[in-house]
Write a structure and sequence with these properties.
By secondary structure, the protein is of the alpha/beta class. It has helices spanning 5-25, 52-60, 75-78, 98-109, 122-125, 145-148, 192-196, 275-285, 308-312, 318-336, 354-367, 371-390, 398-408, 414-428, 435-452; strands spanning 65-68, 82-87, 113-117, 130-134, 177-181, 235-240, 243-251, 254-259, 292-296. It folds into 3 domains: 1-27 and 317-340; 30-184 and 229-301, Rossmann fold; 357-452, no CATH class. The relative contact order is 0.12.
Length: 453
């Protein structure tokens, strides 16, 4: 039990750390349901209120689509001739600043095209000339998509245009806002016939649209180079008496389209009725084939200066799993480097050379003149290797070895072999042998073995 006490404590600590991190992070493994009251309009979002399906459709059909993760201030320098798709609402911490709104308007005025899809487009465009209100009685924000569809959506088609082409069976939501542009005027009393047959708003002259707050009859300032066009006299494609749902502007050298119902391109609405046709008409008319299509993700919480992996896993348990894995790895490294038994002594290296023993034994044998003792060590090994290579037993006699040597036709002199074996056996029987004779005898043994190889 004592030997495993450290391991048990380590496991308990690991479990405690994991439980503590999970409790501190307050993880929600199941994402909360998305509703139209708090939608997530990012093209990264595959949920019901996201726009990932529309983005991937454009991507897979070969259109030059990408995600814009920079401030609107960089549009003029990095995307001067592009199509920007802005879908609202933005994240609460990523609102549109006055500087960004002015940069966006100047970019469109210089030739950029923009598609603003929002129920409150003022928050996405920043021009007080556009106002929008939801006219539905008791709007059902939490209703399922099937109950959000307005079955009278086709009645909103004002006129046949390039944007309303093939829109039979349009499926807008009941939450579509109604937009009005320009300075609000008090309604004047008129007859019922005038109400039934309203004349279209006349297109303003360039002089009347060059001022941010210009209305018919107002004078135009002299310095027109710093002024922006106004949202005045739009071409209304979808709408009713309460206001426009789809409006189109020539904004300086660029073009600007407002759509007040994000349900058209949301994941839960783009496949209903003719919504996909309307969405494709919008990007086609704005020059999707010749312009790069940019989906604004900067204001949905995905700026480029942040780590894309951390942004992608935001709101999921993945970052905490990484932290827990790192802590667990450090604990394993610490445990592997810590002993759970008695300490062992370090190995001691033998500093003596093996040749010292050989030299000592040689000196002893030379002093004692024990030449036969050295031969007793060398000769048995020689005879064993010789007989093994000739296929004989190590106890074979000299005559057997010579006869086998002749049959094998080995390049070894038979006379030299007989002489070597005889002298070695006589020396082992006690015949006196000098040092020089012993050296010659051992040299002949090595030469014979080398010839047998």
């Amino acid at each position: 039990m004592r030997r495993n006490l450290g391991i048990i404590i380590a496991i308990v600590l690991v479990l405690a750390v994991i439980i503590g991190l999970s409790a501190a992070g307050n993880l929600e493994l199941d994402r909360p349901p998305e509703t139209e009251l708090q939608p997530i309009r990012s093209s990264y979002n595959s949920g019901p209120t996201g726009t990932r399906a529309f983005y991937q459709l454009l991507e897979e059909t070969g259109r030059p689509v990408t995600r814009w993760r920079e401030s609107f201030k960089l549009l003029a320098s990095e995307a001067p001739n592009a199509l920007l798709v802005v879908v609202g609402p933005f994240q609460s911490e990523q609102g549109l600043t006055d500087e960004e709104a002015e940069a966006l308007q100047r970019w469109i005025d210089a030739g950029g095209n923009a598609l603003v899809i929002s129920r409150y487009p003022l928050a996405q465009f920043g021009d007080p000339m556009v106002q929008a209100n939801i006219t539905a009685q008791n709007p059902r924000w939490n209703a399922p998509p099937e109950q959000l569809v307005d079955n009278r959506s086709d009645d909103l088609i004002v006129q046949p245009t390039e944007l309303t082409k093939d829109l039979s069976g349009l499926a807008l939501s009941t939450l579509a806002a109604r937009m009005r542009f320009g300075v609000a005027e008090e309604p004047e009393e008129s007859s019922e016939e005038e109400d039934e047959e309203e004349e279209p708003t006349p297109t303003p002259t360039p002089e009347a649209t060059s001022s941010p707050t210009a209305t018919p009859g107002q004078s135009v300032p002299e310095d027109e180079s710093e002024l922006l066009p106004t949202l005045y006299a739009p071409v209304v494609h979808l709408g009713d008496k309460d206001g426009a749902v789809l409006a189109d502007f020539d904004y300086g050298k660029g073009r600007l389209i407002f759509l007040s119902d994000p349900f058209v391109i949301a994941n839960n609405g783009i496949g209903r009725g003719a919504n996909l046709t309307l969405a494709l008409n919008l990007v086609r008319i704005l020059g999707a084939n010749n312009r790069r299509i940019l989906f604004d993700e900067y204001h949905h919480g995905y700026p480029s200066e942040s780590n894309p992996l951390l942004r992608y896993t935001r709101g999921t348990p993945v970052p905490w799993l990484f932290v827990q894995g790192i802590l667990l790895g450090l604990l394993l490294v610490y445990s592997a480097g810590k002993r759970f038994a008695r300490p062992l002594p370090l190995p001691r290296q033998d500093r003596h050379s093996p040749l010292e023993f050989v030299d000592s034994m040689a000196n002893l044998q030379q002093a004692a003149q024990a030449r036969s003792l050295a031969l007793e060590t060398i000769y048995p090994r020689f005879k064993t290797q010789l007989c093994r290579r000739l296929g004989l037993s190590s106890r074979a006699q000299i005559e057997e070895i010579a006869a086998r040597l002749r049959r094998r036709r080995v390049p070894v002199a038979e006379l030299e072999l007989r002489q070597t074996l005889s002298e070695a056996e006589l020396a082992l029987r006690g015949e006196k042998l000098e040092d020089a004779e012993l050296v010659k005898l051992v040299a002949r043994m090595r030469r014979i073995l080398a010839q047998l190889r």
